[in-house]
Design a protein that fits this description.
- α3 crosses α7 and α12 packs across α13.
- This protein folds into three domains: 112 residues, Fumarate Reductase Iron-sulfur Protein, Chain B, domain 2, CATH 1.10.1060; 169 residues, FAD/NAD(P)-binding domain, CATH 3.50.50.60; 138 residues, 3-Layer(bba) Sandwich (FAD/NAD(P)-binding domain), CATH 3.50.50.60.
- The termini are far apart.
- With 436 residues, the chain is α/β, with parallel strands linked by helices.
- It contains 17 helices and 17 strands.
- Bound molecules: flavin-adenine dinucleotide.
């Protein structure tokens, strides 16, 4: 357990060597492994597990590195029950191999022992700018640097990592794990420039003027939707994304606990039914809120949060109100004290002194509004094409991750980014050939 500013980080410690080998030995090494099909980036799962079972952790690491730059992260936050583990043949008997934990073991062992020995070629194939450093940007940067591209990542925030750093709470993904994965990508020769906002500090056009051959937009969906109901300006109403970010900063001692809206003894209502709502609720529990309820407008079955996240929230004492549609925040003076919801039985008033809104997010317009020629759809998502994969309507400008396909998962952003990296490489190689 790690004691920090705001609450105790009670993260699962993962396997030790004996446990990992024992778990790996349970793998049946199927002739037609279904687990691979469950992994969006098609990690060679039986192969890396076989190496663990023989004690060859370095070999296991090499196998994972063929497909992923972020094994320590995927091993912790992928929805394994819906992916690899859900597709494991042993899942039918409820005895699936704990693939996520094994991936995490290999990545952590690699880090502890300093096994990394990536042979990175000289940077001779061209210069690529990556805007945004979430899993999409990090994947592009890692994949391109490993095949000889000179990559510079521009990140708006003071530290790279995107949602991995500022969104997913530290009790599920410790921040030192994110930082060390970024250091690994940095060791491939990638340059990170932070506090650099595209559309403010530079534009896509200025990138090309300064000699980049291609640019990648991986800026995610960092505009959170707000609930437009009376009382939304009352004190105590806050976006969950802001709450998660301030809690993370306070936990690291970079912000005063008094700047975090949830306090010990708060009565918190979280509005929404996705994984962000679960994270906000569980973080509030850890801070010491007296009562935490999630209010969701549809039924339990309709809730978009993954089953595992929902069950963890229930186990930790979070209460759920389904089929309750918020219609008004009520205040005492300028502070919120309750929310009025419409249920099947009529209006109901739920008391609370903190309201956290978690009802989705969308892309910002900063880049497309300062660059001519990048088309977006009616919801603001960047339009890309199949050939070269991921190129936008503006030549040489590519996009991938949540900013293209809507908020999804870390591994989905990685999967798309891997394909876009191939598209960028093909485009830059062709461009260089024609330039000659
Ligand atoms: C609270 C929360 C919990 C989640 N939990 C999970 C989970 O457990 N498992 C899972 O698989 N997925 C989870 N997700 C979803 C997952 O994190 C996202 O799908 C993924 O991070 C998207 O990656 P991305 O690289 O496209 O964007 P992001 O991670 O959003 O990264 C975008 C980056 O671009 C930067 N940026 C934005 N605009 C600019 C600009 N103009 N100039 C420069 N930089 C800019 C941002 O600061 C950010 O660093 C969660 C999401 C949230 C919000």
């Amino acid at each position: 357990m790690e004691s920090k500013g705001l609450y105790i980080i009670d993260a699962d410690q993962g396997y030790n060597m004996l446990e990992a080998v024992a778990e790996a030995k349970r793998c049946l090494n199927c002739k037609n492994p279904t687990c691979i099909g469950g992994c969006p980036i098609e990690n060679d799962i039986p192969e890396f597990i076989k190496e663990i079972s023989k004690g060859n952790f370095g070999e296991a690491r090499e196998i994972l590195a063929r497909k992923t730059n972020l094994p320590a992260i995927c091993g912790r936050v992928c929805p394994h029950d819906l992916q690899c583990e859900g597709h494991c043949i042993l899942a039918k008997a409820g005895k699936e191999i704990n693939i996520g934990k094994l991936e995490r073991f290999v990545a952590d062992f690699d880090h502890t022992m300093g096994l990394i020995n990536e042979k990175i070629p000289r940077k001779t194939r061209g210069k690529v700018a990556v805007i945004g450093s979430g899993p999409a940007g990090l994947t592009i940067a890692g994949d391109l640097a490993k095949i000889g591209f000179n990559v510079v990542v521009y990140e708006a925030l003071p530290e790279p990592g995107g949602i991995l750093l500022y969104g997913i709470p530290d009790f599920r993904l410790q921040k030192d794990v994110v930082r060390r994965e970024i250091r690994k990508i940095e060791s491939y020769g990638v340059t990170f420039m932070t506090n650099m906002v595209a559309g403010v500090d530079f534009t896509v056009d200025t990138l090309f003027q300064s000699g980049f051959d291609a640019a990648f937009i991986g800026t995610g969906t960092n505009v959170s939707n707000n609930l437009d109901i009376p009382g939304k300006s009352l004190k105590g109403v806050e976006l969950s994304s802001y709450f998660l970010r301030t809690s993370m900063l306070a936990n690291e001692g970079k912000l005063n606990s008094s700047d975090v809206i949830v306090k010990e003894g708060s009565k918190v209502i979280v509005i929404g039914g996705g994984n962000v709502a679960m994270d906000a609720a569980r973080t509030a529990v850890r801070i010491g809120a007296k009562e935490v309820s999630v209010v969701y407008r549809r039924s339990e079955e309709d809730m978009p949060a993954t089953r595992a996240e929902y069950e963890d929230a229930l186990r930790e004492g979070v209460q759920f109100r389904f089929n309750s549609n918020p219609i008004e925040y009520l205040g005492r003076g300028d502070e919120v004290c309750a929310i009025k919801v419409m249920t099947e039985e009529g209006e109901e008033i739920l008391e609370g002194d903190v309201m956290l809104v978690a009802i989705g997010s969308k892309p910002a317009k900063r880049i497309v509004s300062t660059t001519e020629g990048i088309d977006v759809d009616e919801k603001g998502y960047v339009v890309t094409r199949e050939k070269p994969y991921g190129m936008t309507t503006l030549k040489g400008v590519f996009a991938g991750g949540d900013v293209v396909h809507q908020p999804a998962t870390v591994v989905k952003a990685m999967k798309e980014a891997k394909k876009v990296a191939e598209g960028i490489a093909a485009y830059v190689d062709a461009k260089k050939l024609l330039d000659l």
